[in-house]
Hints:
Structural class: alpha/beta
CATH superfamily: YqgF/RNase H-like domain
Order of helices and strands: EEEEHEHEHH
Oligomer: single chain
Amino acid sequence: MTASAHASPTLLALDIGLRRTGVAVGNSLGGLAQPAGLIGVRNGRMDWQELDRLIERWQPQALILGDPQSKDPALNKLKNRVKSHVQQHHKIPIIEWNEAYTTESANAELVTRKVNSKNKVNLRDQIAACLILDAYLDSL
């Protein structure tokens, strides 16, 4: 389904991490977030081309940016780089959302679903992004 097929505003959510960033997509009408991919992160630098590709693909009206409320300066620097990149290149609104413990919740969900280790790594950050987006949508 393309972004233009959505009847309500599309939203993209990011669960930022220092190795990979999980992405989820959803909309404010249906309220269902779904995994939309992973973006690699190396040496504190996100794969900007992959982020741009996902934004172009989904054409979100806003980006829900998970804020881990971390004291880790590297994570905060990356979060600020993402904000700067999105504002500079895409000019879409960014909504920061407290996402403390979403990765732990995603891990617990994957254990419940009995997902194997390899798939767990690929899914965890995307599910965490879904949890961020779901929490935001629930607040509307």
